[in-house]
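Researcher: Please predict.
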Amino acid sequence: MITISPKEGITDARQLGLPKYTILGVQHLFAMFGATILVPVLTGLSVSTTLLFAGIGTLVFHLITKLKVPAFLGSSFAFIGGYLSVKTLGVEQGMTETLALSYACIGVFFAGMCYFIMAGFIKTFGIDKIMRYFPPVVTGPMIIAIGLVLSGSAIHNCTTNWLLALVAILTVICTSIWGKGIIKIIPILLGVLVSYTVAAVTGEVDFSPLHEAAWVGLPFSREQTVLAVLDHMDTSFLVSTIIAIMPIAIATIMEHIGDMCAISSTVGKDFLKEPGLHRTLMGDGLATALASLFGAPANTTYGENTGVLNLTKVFDPAVIRLAAILAILLSFCPKFACLIGLMPAATIGGVSLILYGMISAVGVRNLVEAGVDFSSSRNVFVAALILVIAIGVKYGAEDNVNIGPIHFSGLALSALVGIILNACLPNKLGMKVKSVHGKEKPQDNSQVE
């Protein structure tokens, strides 16, 4: 089981007052924006629909998890390969790209249903029997790997304009360390605004598309939903799509568990026990299934927002829900979506670099607080392979590993390897490790019981 220590932070943002509460919500909105809109940009799905169901999916997740888990659900990158493969195959068979993506969305719907199957196993057999396979020697490196794997995209964005990236980074650092009052708890938002302003002043942003965008518009149309498939039903292609995409859920469920461990460690509450991993899985699965029906990408809990939680120490889930409501409202404003879409990649890269680093730092802290003994070779093997596989697959020749019909991301494959190794490798009972208080404990906290 992951090690959880109580964290000092604000658990009721209402005590900050409405203005600060609102600004914190806007900050979470900006934190998720870059990655969330990137998925529809890469796949051809609608940006406005994506925003709408990121907000709706987040609210659904919070409702199912008893309003206790401060997580934002944005676009999942794990399904990008599935979308692109189905779109390419559909176009080869004479379909439009939009129709082919509608077929892909049905496959994603069934993938979302797989979360409920896993949740059922956890509810039936109990969280302890499941989570004993996720001790700190596994979850700590998994959390570290999440930040490191994401860091590549941040560096790539920074390289487009290092000046703007450095402006964002320095703004975040300075306001976080030396800021007072509200300034201290909104460093990410300030980093975005200052860097974006510098970009606008120096002529790095072309605002001409902004004038053509409408103020109000519907975020989706019937042609983008799965209803379009009913008009042009190809049963064999539909079955092939479901078979190709549904197994991806195996990988995303592994990533979900890693994200929930990261959020639990950040906040200092064991969300895997209360409200329960079965509830967080159902919330994530339902959000994904619902989004897919309307032509939006699959959803997943977002590391960017976990980084904001760690930086601001404001853990109130209500702030996340405010960000979700703002996303829903803004999905009906094409002009705002366009404005955010014009944000320089370097600005996003600068703030993301810090947020991803904060996630990895949480993983390191999890290992330290658990007192995991790295003088033990078996622990070194488990942690090392998790880190190397996650990073190696991500930055190798291929972005994932294909095992039969299943496409494993580096994170999912490394988690699977780590779990199996930790369960199979022998561990010497009675091994003494130091706790965070410097006292010896009689047994290493990394063994499957």
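Model: Strands lie at 73-75, 299-301, 400-403, 406-409, 433-434, 440-441.
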